[in-house]
Design brief:
InterPro entries: Band_7 (IPR001107), Band_7/SPFH_dom_sf (IPR036013)
Strand content: 15-25%
Oligomer: single chain
Main location: membrane
Largest sheet: 5 strands, mixed
Number of strands: 32
Membrane topology: Single-pass membrane protein
Helix content: 40-55%
Pfam families: Band_7
Subcellular location: Membrane
Distance between the termini: 205 Å
Radius of gyration: 77 Å
């Protein structure tokens, strides 16, 4: 009633009604009433990141039944149902205790393991509790009693069992009742503390074991690891990994079995367990505990390490040049396929126990080493040395030594030898079945066989024969050992014998060899001398033959030269005949061609002659007419010039004056000085400058310059100039030439015919 009034009237109203200390009293009462209401209502608050585990302190229904720890029907004890985040009522403090715990968190890529404190007990053959439909342990009631009623005719779903569980938790957050379950992760153990320190120590021990086996991480197969070389075990090689699974739960193997058979490996199988990741399917398929035949190949697997442990081993590598003979430890007893004549063991088919009839070729195999072994057998030719201190890389001959011999003449050498061996890959299982491995074959069979054979050979021969008959011994050894090796399915390719020797230096064998060398040297010298004598005799014979051959060569050369000359003459004659015949034929052809050509030329010449005659006549007439015209022209021009000149001369009344005028004009235009630097005088009395006289000489011989001076002197002196002699004859000649020119000059008629003018004289 007071709480309702306080909610409606407010603090001020309360202060007016109850002044002073009464206000404090009423406020305390109000909170007390509220607290009482909360207590009386049984209200509890659970955060959203936690869950509440209810523990009933007392109940009218009494305690939980015998053999149970969890209360399913409201009995006193830990309740199966959880309280999730929020406010809950009816959980009175005097009857219920609430344990607030964190949500279970499994980190990414990790695995969580579960231990159940309650449930049905485990069966005698079980080590882990079976998988129940409980929503990853978040439904405790379904884990304990189931929450689905089976239909008529169907089997009831299995209920959860106490103890460690086959089911694991993958990454995520889970609301799990930690009173019933303990969840172990890599970094925490989720549980409700109420069973003391002993339980905690057990849980911590499990956690440490899982950490040691890397159980909180998934199994990763395929990473490269180091492994011994199958041929050279002292070396290490890098090989992909393989997972060998050992199951810790389920029925045990039967008597005589060491490897659990493969079950539920195919996806179409009803109980396909997906590589041991589903334990219930594995067990339902008939799986047994123990090492499993089927290994894990490359991949990532979330496997419960309480259920199955995984051993990482290298894959099996069969190198090139080898085959792997499989000796199987797993499978049923097989039927022998080697035949009744082979009494060294049985060869069986795949899936049966024993030496498999088909070997593994070169490659990489996911072979389970606990289900069998693989013996490497070389299939290429390999050499075995019976030489002390020498071995090949395969190490098959590391225990072999040079063979000790005793010869017929009591020498005791050691014989080094090498044998080339080949094993057919199809017969490799026979060899392994017979001997176990290649090294045992060599040490237990080949070594005694070869030693005995060559000792027998040495007993029948002296030391010299042993040295000299090496090829025969090798051939005999190859043939004999090939036949013996074939009985063991081995092929002897070749036998190579070395030089016999003694253990001590400078022993009897060396002395024998030195004597043999000297003897052989003597034999060789005798042979050399004989050959030298024979060579000398042959040289003498050769010299005689060469002398005869020298003369014979000259004679032969002369005869050959004669034949060569005769042959050359005949060849030249034949060549000349052929050339003459060819020239004759060619001349005949040329003559015929020339006759034809001459006739054509004659005809053409005739025509050309006729044409030339006509042309000559025309050209002659043309030239005659042209000459006459040119002559008339020149005559007329000359006469004209002569008449003009004559008139010029006559105008001076003395030709000499005209000449003097011409000379004066020439001198005026001349570049020479008018007055000479030197004067040569010509004599006028008939005497020359040197005193000689020339009678009867004409005055004109005095020279041009003297004449000119005489004329000038005569003119200045007043003497008359006589007429030039011959002027009249010149005029007559000019008139005569004029008349002839006029007579010769042609006249043209109106019809174009040229007529000659008759002579006027």
């Amino acid at each position: 009633m007071f709480a309702a009034m306080g909610m409606w009237l407010g603090p001020m109203l309360w202060a007016q009604l109850f002044p002073g200390d009464w206000f404090v009293f009423l406020a305390a009462g109000f909170f007390g009433v509220v607290l009482g209401a909360v207590v009386l209502s049984g209200m509890r608050y659970i955060p959203n990141n936690r869950v509440g585990i209810v523990e009933t302190l007392w109940s009218p229904k009494g305690s939980v039944p015998e053999g149970r720890m969890m209360a399913l029907m409201g009995e006193a004890g830990f309740q199966a149902d959880l309280l999730r985040g929020g406010v809950h009522f009816g959980l009175w403090a005097w009857q219920y205790r609430i344990h607030r715990v964190n949500l279970v968190t499994v980190p990414q890529g990790k695995i969580g393991y579960v231990y159940a404190r309650d449930g049905e007990p485990l069966e005698a053959s079980q080590t882990l509790g079976r998988v129940a439909a409980c929503n990853n342990f978040q439904d405790a009631r379904a884990f304990l009693v189931g929450d689905v009623v089976p239909a008529p005719g169907e089997e009831a779903l299995p209920l959860g069992q106490r103890g460690r569980q086959r089911m694991i938790l993958r990454e995520g957050v889970y609301a799990i009742n930690l009173a019933l379950f303990v969840v172990i992760t890599e970094d925490a153990a989720y549980r409700l503390e109420f069973q003391g320190r002993r339980e905690l120590e057990t849980i911590v021990g499990w956690q440490n074991e899982l950490k040691a086996s890397n159980g909180f991480n998934p199994v990763v197969i395929g990473a490269p690891i180091q492994a011994p070389d199958p041929i050279h075990p002292e070396r290490q090689i890098t090989v992909d990994s393989l997972g060998i699974v050992t199951v810790q739960d389920g029925p045990s193997l039967g008597p005589g079995e060491i490897i659990a058979p493969a079950v539920g490996t195919r996806r179409e199988d009803k109980h396909f367990h997906n590589n041991y990741q589903d334990p219930e399917a594995f067990l339902a398929a008939g799986g047994h505990r123990g090492r499993q035949y089927v290994p894990l190949t490359d991949g990532t697997y979330f496997i419960n390490r309480w259920f199955a442990s995984v051993e990482v081993v290298p894959k099996t590598v069969v190198p090139i040049g080898f085959v792997g003979v499989v000796v199987s430890y797993y499978g049923r007893t097989g039927q022998d396929v080697s035949g009744t004549g082979f009494r060294h063991g049985e060869r069986v088919a795949e899936g049966e126990r024993g030496v498999l009839e088909r070997p593994l070729g070169p490659g990489k195999y996911g072979f389970n080493p606990y289900a069998g072994s693989i013996v490497m057998v070389p299939t290429t030719n390999f050499v075995l040395h019976w030489v002390t201190g020498r071995t090949e890389t395969h190490r098959y001959d590391e225990s072999l030594r040079s063979i000790d011999l005793v010869t017929k003449d009591a020498y005791e050498p050691t014989l080094p030898l090498s044998v080339v061996v080949h094993i057919d890959y199809q017969k490799a299982p026979n060899v392994i079945q017979r001997f176990g491995d290649v090294k045992k074959l060599i040490t237990q069979t080949l070594d005694p066989m070869l030693s005995a054979f060559f000792r027998d050979v040495a007993h029948k021969r002296t030391m010299l024969q042993l040295l000299q008959d090496r090829d025969d011994i090798q051939r005999e050894g190859r043939e004999t050992l090939s036949a013996r090796f074939s009985q063991f399915d081995i092929e002897c390719v070749d036998v190579l014998i070395g030089k016999p020797d003694t253990a001590e230096a400078g022993g009897k064998i060396e002395t024998l060899l030195e004597q043999l060398r000297q003897r052989q040297l003597s034999v060789e010298q005798i042979e050399t001398y004989q050959r030298q004598r024979a060579a000398a005799e042959t040289l003498q014979t050769l010299n005689d033959a060469q002398a005869q051959a020298t003369m014979q060569t000259s004679l032969t050369n002369s005869k050959v030269q004669i034949q060569i000359v005769e042959n050359q003459g005949e060849a030249e004659l034949a060549k000349t005949r052929k050339a003459a015949e060819a020239d004759l034929a060619r001349a005949q052809k040329m003559a015929e061609q020339m006759v034809v050509t001459a006739q054509a030329e004659l005809n053409r010449s005739r025509k050309q002659a006729e044409q030339m005659v006509v042309l000559a006549q025309a050209e002659a007439e043309q030239r005659t007419l042209a000459g006459k015209g040119e002559a008339s022209k020149i005559a007329q021009i000359g006469l004209s010039e002569a008449s003009v000149l004559l008139r010029k001369v006559q105008s001076f009344s003395d030709p000499r004056l005209y000449a003097l005028t011409q000379i004066a004009n020439q001198l005026a235009n001349s570049n020479q000085p008018l007055v000479p630097q030197r004067v040569f005088m010509a004599g006028t009395s008939g005497h020359s400058a040197n005193g000689d006289s020339h009678h009867g000489a004409d005055s004109s011989a005095q020279g041009l310059f003297g004449l000119l001076i005489s004329l000038m002197v005569a003119e200045k002196s007043g003497f008359g100039v006589a007429e030039a002699e011959g002027a009249k004859s010149l005029e007559e000649y000019a008139e005569k030439m004029t008349r002839e020119a006029m007579t010769v000059a042609p006249s043209t008629t109106p019809n174009g015919v040229t007529n000659a003018k008759p002579d006027a004289s």
